[in-house]
Amino acid sequence: MTVRVKWDRTPISVHSENREILEGLMMHLRNTHNVRKRSIIMDDREDGGFLFFIYQVCDPRWIADYINGERSNG
């Protein structure tokens, strides 16, 4: 699973070639960490694939936990 996060920008952007990965990550952040201030998933016109923005504090470990959990599950 490839997820790229651009932490150096405001708002933070989360990128992937796979829309379903981003949908799962958004659900994880919402259900586990109450991250609700985010955009919809949209086409990434600069790099290809898809992206969404996060408009509130998000600990990098929350995303890493999801990615590592998905790798171990399948």
Structural write-up:
By secondary structure, the chain is of the alpha+beta class. 39% of the residues lie in helices and 20% in strands. It contains 2 helices and 4 strands, in the order ββαββα. It has helices at residues 19-33, 60-73, and strands at 4-6, 12-16, 42-43, 50-54. It has a 4-stranded antiparallel sheet with strand order 1-2-4-3. A hairpin with a 5-residue loop joins β1 (4-6) and β2 (12-16). α1 packs across α2. The radius of gyration is 11 Å and the shape is globular. It starts with a strand and ends with a helix.
Which descriptors would you attach to this protein?
20% strand, 74 residues, globular, alpha+beta
